[in-house]
Design brief:
- With 197 residues, the protein is mostly helical.
- The protein has one domain.
- 71% of the residues lie in helices and 0% in strands.
- The chain is built from 10 helices and no strands.
- Helix 4 runs antiparallel to helix 5 and helix 5 runs antiparallel to helix 6.
- The longest helix has 23 residues.
- It is globular, with a radius of gyration of 16 Å.
- The N and C termini lie far apart (51 Å).
């Protein structure tokens, strides 16, 4: 049992770090109210952008990414597998934060933050795929879906199977969280980047 304690601590620490709802905290402190009551109701950077405050949206993006990076890097000092577990737990924490009834964001920023902490070259591939898709389509959700599909494939070729498997699971969860967006994309009613509605 003692042998499993580092993995349990990595998972718990990563989850609690990932659970910090930066989008909600920043908008409230800025006097913009509850971000969950506007747009998609999401606490992530894309919805924070719908408040019209680009600086807050950028700060939310960076802080949500930082959660994943910090978890992966800190635990990763004790081994790659611990870093992957902590990063994955931070990702889950962002999606299902204990502090606000397990209703969190969709995990894209934290996903790339985890990549930065444990697979920087894959993070670069993720960012390039996201930016290219966003430039062409102006759909944040579609950009995330494309980028998360590419990440585990790239990691499988240049990294290791354990990390690739964790990323594949994160991709599946991300797509599951984006179910409403996928329906809107197919119907042609999805909001584009910069829309306030």
């Amino acid at each position: 049992m003692i042998a499993y304690l580092p993995f349990l601590w990595a998972a718990l620490g990563g989850y609690l770090l990932g659970s910090i709802p930066f989008g909600l905290l920043l908008t409230k402190f800025a006097g913009l109210g509850d971000v969950r009551k506007i747009g998609s109701g999401n606490i992530g950077a894309t919805n924070v952008l719908r408040t019209g405050n680009k600086k807050l949206a950028a700060a939310t993006l960076l802080l949500d990414a930082f959660k994943g990076t910090a978890a992966a890097l800190i635990a990763g000092q004790l081994g790659l597998e611990l870093g992957v577990i902590a990063g994955f737990a931070a990702f889950l924490g962002h999606l299902f934060p204990v502090w606000i009834g397990f209703k969190g964001g969709k995990g894209v920023a934290t996903y790339i933050g985890v990549l930065l902490g444990m697979a920087p070259w894959v993070a670069l591939a993720f960012a390039l795929a996201w930016l290219a898709t966003a430039f062409i389509s102006r759909y944040s959700s579609l950009s995330a879906l494309v980028a998360t599909l590419i990440a585990p494939v790239v990691e499988l070729f240049i990294g290791n199977q354990f990390t690739a498997a964790a990323l594949a699971l994160m991709t599946i969860i991300t797509w599951w969280k984006h179910r409403p967006n996928i329906k809107k994309l197919l119907a042609g009613t999805e909001s584009k980047i910069g829309d306030k509605g």
